[in-house]
TrEMBL record:
<protein>
    <submittedName>
        <fullName>Uncharacterized protein</fullName>
    </submittedName>
</protein>
<feature type="compositionally biased region" description="Basic and acidic residues">
    <location>
        <begin position="100"/>
        <end position="114"/>
    </location>
</feature>
<feature type="region of interest" description="Disordered">
    <location>
        <begin position="93"/>
        <end position="114"/>
    </location>
</feature>
Length: 164
């Protein structure tokens, strides 16, 4: 697990566009002022004990809390960098929340594939709302990608094969 200091250094080195703000109890927030959304806080309540949250508006509701944040306490450096990058990319784009949701009766917009490893571990690749999500056997989110090609590349690199 990364320490509080490690997380601060990682954020400041990789995301100079985030502004650090001190909040109560020694916690820090990192704001993204260039966000085109109402939401500006990307990293929320980063605590000296290593706990903290990153905004996950781009992720399914099942992996974030009621405020839309993902707990990053046990994240490794690469995971944290990827999550913050995805969050900032999401906040940089306009999203048509005012538009009525599409009729999902035929569920054409949702795609699902099953992939497996040599050790017979099975995971799901789910395409929904323009994003691709990888879920492990326990249905926990492992990764999220903007394109199918990125998700497929990730799975192939991890030596997974598509189930036919």
């Amino acid at each position: 697990m990364l320490s509080f200091e490690d997380k601060i250094a990682l954020i400041q080195e990789n995301f100079p566009e985030l502004d650090m703000h001190e909040v109560s109890l020694g916690r820090l927030n990192f704001h993204y002022e260039e966000s085109v959304q109402d939401k500006k806080i990307v990293v929320y309540h980063l605590h000296p004990n290593g706990n903290g949250f990153v905004y996950g508006g781009h992720l399914p509701q099942s992996v974030k809390n009621e405020k839309g944040y993902v707990n990053i306490r046990d994240y490794e450096a690469e995971e944290l960098i990827a999550l913050i990058k995805e969050s900032m990319e999401y906040l940089s784009k306009k999203h048509g929340w005012q538009q009525p949701k599409k009729d999902r009766t035929n569920d054409d917009d949702r795609k699902e594939e099953h992939w497996y490893s040599h050790s017979h571990e099975e995971i799901r690749l789910v395409g929904e709302d323009g994003m691709w999500f990888i879920f492990d056997e326990d249905d926990a989110l492992e990764a999220a990608f903007e394109t199918y090609a990125e998700a497929e590349g990730y799975l192939k690199e991890a030596d997974f094969k598509k189930k036919k």
